[in-house]
Predict the structure.
Amino acid sequence: MTLADQLDALADAIAAAGELGLDVSAAGMTRDIARDRLRFPGSTYVLALAGGTGVGKSSLLNAIAGTAVSRVAARRPTTADPVAWIPRTARDELAPLLEWLGVKETHEHDDPRAGGVAVLDLPDLDSIVPEHRATVDELLPRVDAVVWVADPEKYQDAVLHDDYMRRWMPRLERQLVVVNKSDRLEAGDAERIRRDLAAALPAERGTVEVITASAASGEPGIERLRAWIAGGADAKRIVSERIGAEARAAIRELAERAGVATGAGELVPAALRATALRDMVSEALALLDMRGLERQAVSATRLAARPRGAGPLGPLTAFIYRWSGRASVKADPAAYVRRWRERGTLARVTQPLRALVAEALTAAPPPVRPRVAAVYEPRAVDSQIAASLDRAAATPLGSAPTSLVWMLIGLAQYVVTAALIFAALWIAIIAFGRVDISTVAVPVLGPVPTPLLVLAGALAAGYILARMLGAHAYWLGRRWAGRMRTGIIAELQPRLESAAIAPLMAIDTARARLAAAHARARG
Amino acid sequence: MTLNEDIPHRAAAIGALADRRWRIASDTPDARERARQLRDHVTTYIRPRVASLDAPLVVVLLGPTGAGKSSLVNALAGHVVSASGVLRPTTRVATVVATDADAALLAAGPLQAISAACRYVTEGARPGIALIDSPDIDSVERANRALADALVEAADLCVFVTTASRYADQVPWDVLGRAKARGLPLLMLINRLSPSDAERREVLEDAARLIGAADLPRIDERADGGIELLGTREGDVDADRQALTGDAVEAVRSRIDALAADRDARLDLARRALAGAIAGLAPLVSRIADDTEAQAARASELMEDTRTSYAAALDDLHRELRDGRFLREEVLRQWHSFVNSDQITRFFSSGIGRIRGALVAAIRGTPVAPVGTVEREATSDVVTLSLAIATDAARRTAERWSGRSAGALVLTSAPELWSASPTFAAELEPRLHEWVAGIAEDVRTRGAAKRTLAFGASLGVNVVGIAVMLGVFAHTAGLTGAELGVAAGTAFLNQKLLQALFGEASMQEMIGQARARLDTILEARFDAERARFEDRAVPPDDLRALAAELRESVAVSA
């Protein structure tokens, strides 16, 4: 994995962590420092000597250099400002880099064996002068390699281990630990201390080499240190590995805070989300009132059927129904659905989302919780869900269905009406007419006179036809309502999903992105 | 040798306050540390010393890891009593060099709380003096620091041991700062000085400068007013590397021998140390009072967050309940078709409507009211609405809390606070059913007093009760009911019915009472929800009272 990929992963992780509402200032700082450091390419890298006061950082540098580069004294703390020891040949190349680091005091050397490295003697990190520690904290993220210096007295200090090595060791590729002043120990003791210290180093970093040395006596440790320093020949690789390690550590820290360092499970399982969405949709349908819609649809269909299938009186009753305004109240499905706000509140619709968010909150690590909670910000979510309902209610519902059957029934009703009139006239003529009918034989069917029979038959047929029309319109109206319901659901479901479920999914997506960046950076 | 009469009382009072403060969890590490210091100081030093000035003098050897405390204690005891070695940290327990009698006194008194971490040895012990080799104060072994901090509080005299490369380390100076604050007499020994006279002088002068600037308490009055500062050279150790040698060690040893030999000097030192300690309590106690007040302020903020969110939530709930829209129309429609039937409307209509109603009632009888369904559905609607609002209130409160460090800490361990309690619905629902039953009971007692309720009786108490319940939720303020939706229409008819049954005034009173009882039920439930938060914050008033008492206790001693 190249450095560019690592930095991409870092940028990705920062973006994802930002979406999760995490504080990304530290990671952003890492990214900025990486960017700055890469502006100073060259064949020389920067190595810092870091450690407590009095452990002999300056003495070690002087021992390596073979001359007095950095001031050594008994009074503690001694070194206040970082001192650089650089190859004369790299002076021009290093000048801007050292300026960026804020190093003012430099000493040049012509020792070809020292390799392409600028060695920085840092101030102490544990004395009563807080400025020294601040300088160390400022420089450690910017240097390319570190030699941690301790001595038999200070090698288990909490400040060195807990405040420095634990944080910085995972962020460094090239580093070494030196136990100085080994001349004050017997040979066996030096080795025991070396092993004791090696065992106390942060485990996740892998092995960091620990050596013993003596600046005072110049025993073989100094040679090993010098060889180690000169051995890091390829400055470019050291710089890029260092930045890579920083990026990896920064990403890991973000991943840990987001709870995805060991893989990103979904905050709520897909099945729970699907159930919540289904519940929301069914509560939304109840609020839009699908049963009421059906009643309205049936009324509207019947109203449409009446002029066509009710015979001569149909148009009249339909006209009265419309003119009186009852049609718009009782037979207007579209308007009825649109008036859902009059019929209830969103509490039932949003309750499944609330329960889902509560579930996610418990599953989420604490730093992500405010972001999860923001998914259910009542004003925003309610208005979005209300808008979804409005849009669903505005689904074109089509006009009331019609049917040829109604025409046939209507024709039949005309025939029936004609028969009715005929029978009525007949009876009227017989009963009240001045016509002499004694010569006319009234046909008789059984005991009942035919005109009466025709009258009764026509009345019965008219009633049956009207009932048939009603039943048919009811059937058609219900089918229409069913189609409208399907249309509304098709409109509602995706909208509710994007208003309510999608924001939760976005958190999972961001976590997955962060986890992916973490996995990528680890390689 | 006696003490001022006042001192035992004051010690007891401050001790009680220290215990009280310690029992309340502090919300910042610094405040916790100070509360610990005070409690340790009172239990390990002030109380035992007030009880007996003649108790063994506690001399604590204190210092950073690798400074040579064990080598010094070995030198002073004249025996190898404490292991010293090259591996750091060397000492993980406190080694107490004391005679058996003194050790028993100490174990029952000052060292009671930390006796598990103490090792008692009698070799080289001097009667009347306990020499304690404390573990280091600055190694990766955090427990060592805690033990050393406790010993700082228990000591009558401190020999602070450091080295030429350590004397300017920050951590030891932090500990010395506490020794200074509690007025602990000090003797300082710098080990591993350079063999070069010039360097040795330079270091000793620099250390003396630092000590002078820090104004540390002295072991006794000296002409130059400076603290006693001694030094040993690198390599000043005897052959088997277990004990320090040299003039400085001799100086320390002779001081301790002198104290051991002279009971009056011991008592004098103990008395001066106690007086210094009591005087030195004022700054610590007032810092703790400050901590306590600051904690009270933070707790108040949390309480205020909680109070405002839940007050707003209750307001929302009341508003939603009043306008009745939360009842689903499906439910209302069933009730509407019942109260709108001719058999019911005849009770409050006149003329033809009344006759028609009587006729229909005679033929078909009174329709069955959907009492069970309406009650069930309406209460379930109330529960749903309340739960939604309670969830929002919990989330809003948690959001505010998570913006404050003390609140965020609580939420980390209690993620369930982010939403309403899981039993919310289960707890509220039975209360609401009791409420409806209570309304029916109210209807019964009022009905018994009214003869006009003959027809009400034919409807049944439960039916009228439901009418009252719906009257609580949907109340038409003078609307006609002609052109309104089902909700208002139902409310209108309902009201007409109740008016006919009870009369306007009585109806209003009944609805008002039912509403008040409902409000009480809901408020109780929301109070319980709010208490989930409040129970996790320390009551600010308790903290303020404690802070005031702390201040008062030092005002007395000042």
Summary: DSSP finds 20 helices and seven strands in chain B. The first strand of chain B starts at residue 57 and ends at 62.
